[in-house]
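Hi L.,

As promised, P-type ATPase C-terminal domain-containing protein:
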Amino acid sequence: TWTKYAVISIVGSMVAWYIFLPVVSYIGPAISSGVFPEYKGIVPMLWGNANFWLFIILVPFICNLRDFLWKYIKRMYRPLPYHFVQEIQKYNLPDYRPRMDRFRQAVNKVRRIQRLKRNRGYAFSQNDSDQNKIIRAYDTTMEKPRG
């Protein structure tokens, strides 16, 4: 995945190497103890060689070519569903399917209406039913039986 951190680390490591090599090859042998004597004079020989620059450009290209070709063939000739989604997001194509939030609102509205239409009875309704007769038959003035 090419994120900004991956690009910074790859390019940064290459830049660091191009800075590190001249520092080590010129300053290292010049120090009195001769820290890196084997690096003396390597920069003019290395950077003046056409093979070095050819390999710096050609080897990474060849190594990545297989991966790029594989991804190209896979996306162009055998795309997976998430490839389509990525292209829709990349090109900001309009989506003509109903939005999920509108769908949820419609479903909730239908459910509310269905709840309102249900017949709801009350445990103690105002008509003269059997429950009302039982309640009126209980005398509240009498003392509760003990035991």
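Helices lie at 4-30, 42-47, 50-77, 81-91, 100-117, 130-137.

Thanks again for sending the construct details.

K.
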